[in-house]
């Protein structure tokens, strides 16, 4: 902050307004440049080298890292990333929408309920992962306990340890952590729907579904698109839940881009390979961000 | 971001109101049906949403021999505070807690300072490149963190910053900035330009105007932004896991190291620890309720 002090203008101000405005931005922009822009550019460049995380020195290998990635791991990882992203976006969206509609219908205590429902979203992500790991535990987990009591299963299922259930378990965990956010955002959107319009439609004999389609949805569409895409973008790069719950396993069944890039760099120490995969991932992400920005602009107008 | 922070907040704090008379009339069958549907949705989703929280608390209070059963007790038959007292005696965990507090507090202060300057610049001055910069700040939270981390590790390693508080504070602050800047810009926008001009006519320098006139007016917003930054750094897992080793690590990776990867995880102990780790965040959230929607809209505590 010393630079700011030194630049303090005398009364009347020798510094122009524009200069002052940029001076205010300087510390923040410097941090962005050092922590985001430079690492990002450097990461994209590293993809063209063979480089280890732990040994100095590197050699230029051109597109080899990209070619190898595209020939092998890229496609299965893309498939699993999309599976996770879609599941962990659509489910919370539907739950959040149902809950927002219910809370907006004028039932008693909706304010208190809204606060209560936010708990899953508020507690730290790592705690969310611990909690569901315990719930899904093969031997002593409460999920297996309840299912056994109900007579649905005979022996405990290793939800996180089986290739056919691990992804579902991870998606359910992430759904639990994010549906409250969807609820709050959609509830805010619902409160822009004029009540009179609803009542008029009801008087005209429109049923609940018809009213949702013709009155509610047109008002809600803008914000719904934005929250859906934002959640999609976050899930596309989500790391914590998957890493703590399964570490990408079993047998790579939950290995998404975030986990794969992380593991390639920090367990395989293969920086070139990790950043090449990361660059491909980034291009896809930027595509989705572009869609988001367009939707956001449309939502604004 | 196009979402109108101040407007949304007002709309949400006012509970959805329905004419009082509607309740006194008997409900039409159609209304009764929709009310039934509403309560069904609330109940079903409520069970999904809140039972796990219940389970966290119950497990933290259950003695070990009762917690490790093939059919766990859904209602506690025996309750113990032993897991919590054990937690208090664990020096390693206490170290992680101290690290978390230091890093989160410093990040909050730095975030508020840096983002207030940026937001003020965006809000009260007009210059070329302003809009593009604002969009860049917003978009920066959409870059994949796992990828950034790979080279950030190399940068910090080369500069000797690995395993320092500074590495965490710098990276956390950068990730809290987008949200804080957008929140504070929304608040500065509501402070009339005339007020700023009046201060300068009275002879105050631009720095004085900002620090003595504008920032105090925005104080509640500054607190909210600070709490958001606190929660964001308190919750972070991946950066703290990678950029610091055991000595400087914060609670989330610290808990993973302490409890997971053992032959048999001490689940009740871990649930007690989870409970304690969640307290500051839940408390911050309760203070933040009012500002919540604006914050959520601008990109949220959990990135």
TrEMBL record, chain A:
* Record localization: Cell membrane
Q: What is its main location?
A: membrane
Membrane found in the keyword field: yes
| Entry annotated with the keyword Transmembrane helix | yes
Q: Which domain of life is it from?
A: Bacteria
* Provenance organism: Actinomadura viridis
| UniProt entry keywords in alphabetical sequence | Cell membrane, Membrane, Sugar transport, Transmembrane, Transmembrane helix, Transport
Name of the protein this chain belongs to: Multiple sugar transport system permease protein
Q: Which residues form the signal peptide?
A: none
Classification via CDD domains: TM_PBP2
Query: InterPro entries annotated for this entry?
Result: MetI-like, MetI-like_sf, UgpAE/MalFG_permease
A GO cellular component entry from the record: plasma membrane
A GO biological process held by the record: transmembrane transport
**How would you describe this protein's topology in the membrane?**
Multi-pass membrane protein
Q: Which family does it belong to?
A: Belongs to the binding-protein-dependent transport system permease family.
| Domain ABC transmembrane type-1 residue range list | 78-292
Transmembrane regions: 20-41, 84-103, 115-135, 166-188, 220-237, 274-293
From TrEMBL, chain B:
| CDD domains cross-referenced by the UniProt entry | TM_PBP2
**Compartment(s) of residence:** Cell membrane
**Membrane topology, record value:** Multi-pass membrane protein
The answer to whether keyword Transmembrane helix applies is: yes
> Which GO BP annotation is one of this protein's?
transmembrane transport
What residues form the membrane-spanning segments?
Answer: 36-57, 93-120, 132-156, 162-184, 210-231, 270-288
Taxonomy, superkingdom: Bacteria
Q: What GO CC terms are in its UniProt record?
A: plasma membrane
Alphabetical keyword list: Cell membrane, Membrane, Sugar transport, Transmembrane, Transmembrane helix, Transport
Looking at the record, the residues that make up the ABC transmembrane type-1 domain are 97-288
Q: Does the keyword Transport apply?
A: yes
Tell me the segments the record calls region Disordered: 1-29
Q: Give the family this protein belongs to, as stated in its UniProt record.
A: Belongs to the binding-protein-dependent transport system permease family.
Q: What protein name does the entry list?
A: Multiple sugar transport system permease protein
